[in-house]
Design brief:
The chain is of the alpha/beta class. The chain has 19 helices and 15 strands. The protein has helices at 14-26, 29-38, 57-68, 85-93, 115-125, 143-157, 169-184, 188-195, 204-216, 230-253, 269-280, 292-300, 308-311, 330-334, 354-360, 390-393, 400-419, 433-441, 456-462, and strands spanning 48-52, 72-76, 107-108, 136-139, 199-201, 223-225, 261-265, 284-288, 304-305, 317-320, 340-344, 362-367, 370-374, 380-384, 428-429. A hairpin with a 2-residue loop joins strand 12 and strand 13 (370-374). The protein binds 1,4-dihydronicotinamide adenine dinucleotide and 3'-OXO-adenosine. Residues 203-205, 233, 236-237, 240-241, 265-271, 288-291, 294, 321-324, 327, 345-347, 389, 391, 397-398 line the site of 1,4-dihydronicotinamide adenine dinucleotide (NAI).
Length: 477
């Protein structure tokens, strides 16, 4: 067979990656159960799956699960800093390959990609050869989905527009890539979109993009919103960030959080986990919010809800977790104290005005993904991962057990698209509650949780089937 196509930092890291993948499997009972239940039937046989999702040890276990279920997989990361190079190498070599003759899955990802390299990796992950694209996509933030949709839009228009002054540096990179593609392979993206049966989206911000496209009627294929499975967002977003925020802050800065005034911008699932983690470190935690309900929740948990302007000159640590843009502006950072720490844990880097900051400061790199931006008056703002999600840029993201919940949902969603394709239109769906409960059930034994069985009488009394679903769809958890 032709040698495996791939592009990773160092294939020699595979042995180390394999050791960590084997330990991660022990912590991912949901994915292991899905492998046991489905691997023999190979229900994903014939499917070409492109992934655009942080290339970590945890994602390696997801990739090898999809491959075990029969899929032909190609992978890129969804962030320039989030790849763990030893995980990427191990996935390429595979369980039966060698560094000399890799026999795993093509991966196009390394930690520290340029924006051009990032989008080239995404394009490579979407190319299965002979003009074939994916039949299904695993997306995180929607960049793979965006590339296809923009590609189709410009093929229809017969040209790719030049970047406008208001366009981001990143969007200009996308336009340049699509312009090259339009010349080299006209009609490619229209065919890719036609062959693609759907996308399963990992995160809140990616899901926002999908609902926007559904509303505009521009969605080119069905989408399953994995983020809003309860066993994803009420676990990964909340408990995952509770674990990995402080991990990222510590590895980057080693700052003593105890006693410090820490601001969490956004008190959603992610912000709730962040606030709890910082409180656990003995920090004085305050919250900013736009939504009165989330603000009231924060207040009931004892967090002072403030406007950023109220605390910007006294706070020591700022964390954005909103999924919104321009949350921390240059004006805010101008007013911060010397050595204030600023980081984002939201999906995209636009929560902090990094472009504006770079224009008015001198950048002093301290170490990879940790910079001091020095203002004219000499005060320094210490920024993590250039404003990109710091738990994956400065640490290793969420741990395996919580990612097993998220990725079991991803795998079940991919199975849905492969086995029930006819039921899905070009709309956004969530998984049914019985699958959500199945994911939770698969994770209880590992942590010693023992479920109580409903008697028939009790089931009748609360009006649910004894075997579940145990809650109505409108239940909020
Ligand atoms: N780094 C990671 O590992 C993870 C990152 N995420 C990302 O984190 C972000 C937040 O996710 P969720 O908490 O699930 O979303 P969410 O929608 O539950 O929470 C966001 C909160 O921010 C608030 N908000 C919006 N604009 C604001 C502003 N200008 N100032 C203050 N508050 C504002 C909203 O009212 C909302 O309560 C998203 O981009 C998501 O994709 C999600 C999971 C894990
Ligand atoms: N260790 C990890 N491996 C892969 N994805 C992760 C990890 N930690 C967090 N994420 C995901 O990152 C997205 C945000 O881009 C989430 O919603 C999380 O599910």
């Amino acid at each position: 067979p032709a040698p495996l196509e791939y592009k990773v930092k160092d294939i020699g890291l595979a042995e180390w990656g394999r050791k960590e993948i084997e330990l991660a499997e022990k912590e991912m009972p949901g994915l292991m159960a899905v492998r046991r239940e489905y691997a023999r039937q190979k229900p994903l046989a014939g499917q070409r799956i492109t992934g655009s999702l942080h290339m970590t040890i945890q994602t390696a276990v997801l990739i090898e699960t999809l491959a075990d279920l029969g899929a032909d997989v190609r992978w890129a990361s969804c962030n320039i800093f989030s790849t763990q190079d030893h995980a990427a190498a191990a996935v390429v070599v595979g369980r039966g390959g060698t560094v000399e003759r890799p026999a795993g899955v093509p991966v196009f990802a390394w930690k520290g990609e340029t924006l051009e390299e990032y989008w080239e990796c995404t394009e490579r992950a979407l190319d299965f050869g002979d003009g074939k694209g994916p039949t299904q996509i695993v997306d995180d933030g929607g960049d793979a989905t965006l590339l296809i949709h923009k590609g189709v839009e410009f093929e229809k228009a017969g040209k790719v527009p030049s970047p406008k002054a208001s366009d981001s540096e990143e969007y200009a990179v996308v336009l340049k890539l699509l312009a090259k593609e339009l010349k080299a392979s006209p009609g490619r993206w229209t065919k890719v979109a036609k062959d693609c049966a759907g996308v399963t989206e990992e995160t809140t911000t990616g899901v926002h993009r999908l609902y926007d496209m559904q509303k505009a009627g521009t969605l080119l294929f069905p989408a399953i919103n994995v983020n809003d499975s309860v066993t994803k967002s009420k676990f990964d977003n909340l408990y995952g960030c509770r674990h990995s925020l402080v991990d990222g802050l510590n590895r980057a800065t080693d700052v003593m959080l105890a006693g410090k005034l820490c601001v969490v911008c956004g008190y959603g699932d992610v912000g709730k986990g962040c606030a709890q983690a910082l409180r656990g470190q003995g920090a004085r935690v305050v919250v900013t919010e736009i939504d009165p309900i989330n603000a009231l929740q924060a207040s009931m948990e004892g967090y002072q809800v403030v406007r950023l302007e109220d605390v910007v000159s006294q706070a020591d640590v700022f964390v954005t977790a909103t999924g919104n843009l321009d949350v921390i502006t240059v004006e805010h950072m101008k007013a911060m104290k010397d050595c204030a720490i600023v980081g984002n844990i939201g999906h995209f880097d636009n929560e902090i005005d990094m472009a504006g900051l770079k224009k008015v400061t001198e950048r002093v790199n301290i170490k990879p993904q940790y910079d001091a931006f020095v203002f004219e008056d000499g005060h320094r703002v210490l920024v993590l991962a250039e404003g990109r999600l710091l738990n994956l840029g400065c640490a290793t993201g969420h741990p395996s057990f919580v990612m097993s919940n998220s990725f079991t949902n991803q795998t079940l969603a991919q199975l849905e698209l492969a086995t029930n394709r006819a039921s899905y239109e070009k709309k956004v769906y969530t998984l049914p509650k019985h699958l959500d409960e199945k994911v939770a059930a698969l994770h209880l034994e590992q942590i010693g949780a023992r479920l109580t069985k409903l008697t028939k009488k009790q089931a009748a009394y609360i009006g649910v089937p004894a075997a579940g679903p145990f809650k109505p769809d409108h239940y909020r958890y």
